[in-house]
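ok so I'm stuck.
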Amino acid sequence: MKKSMLIASALCIAVAFTGCKSKESAYRKAYEKAQAAEAAGSYQNPAQQQTVNQPVVTPLEERPITDVRTVDNGDNVNVRQERLTVINGSGLRAFSVVVGSFSVKANAEGLQRTLINAGYNAQIAHNAERNMYRVIASTFDNKYDAVESRTQLQSRYPDAWLLFNQ
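replied:
not stuck anymore, here's the structure
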């Protein structure tokens, strides 16, 4: 019984390995057929077989960009209003530039240290309604100065925004 099982399994393995094997002659025939078609000039690349009528697009004429500067007096800048209490800092004026908001106080303190090392008078204020710690890089009495400061800070902190302390 064991001997017949061993012979049957060996036969199955032999058939499996020899039956599924690709023949070299099949590849050779396909290669020779492709060469003959190419020599006759009737061979078409599969990418060439599908021709799609596409409209011809003419490139636009590039015009030099002139230096255009817009003067912003701060009237078109959005300002958020929140009620904040200063946690760490010298105090807030009417308009402040917020560069970070964190729900964890330690993260806010880390950004504050980075800003202080960069020369800013950074402060941390807490919004109790939202339970968020706001890192404020600079604070001003008027909106125009706050807008200028925010514009400068946006090169390093692109999400900087203005805050009006209620």
